[in-house]
Amino acid sequence: MDAIVYLVVTRLAERLSEDEAFRGKVIEQLIADPPLDSPAETSADWESLLLASLWDRHRAVSRTVEVENVAAQLRADHLGILWRLRGASGPAALEHDRLQAEGDFRLAMFGPLAAVCIVTAIRWSPWFLLVFPLLIILIYVGVAARAEAEESLAAALGSGRVIDPALARLDAQSIPMKAQP
Description:
181 residues, elongated
């Protein structure tokens, strides 16, 4: 689960404990399609379980809500979130930008360096092909840096350093539920 999806699940799990209508929809979904290891059978059992345990709320939200669609709405506002982060917190925005640029640079360097390796292997010695595992590591580290940048953005959203209207709408708007089988 990536950082934005986890943020959405956490925010909806908080809403689940406070909003009776939303909790009713989730419980209805859980009763219609219970998990295999379901500890609850009736709606009263589900309600007491969901109100008692944050882990069970996370699990119920992940099972019943279209969290990927909700996370996609947040990702669509990525630039807006980034501008709000820059305005609210300079160091957090700089850290995000550094990680994003580092990841982009490493990913962009793979193509030219791979071409240089291939050309030098053809022109001089096939031993230059031994550099390819290092280039694969370069891709891996670049992707990891971009993922860490997304995590820092999600952490800023989750901690409240950035107030995003799309995230605030999760507390009020109708949430898309998964289709019942």
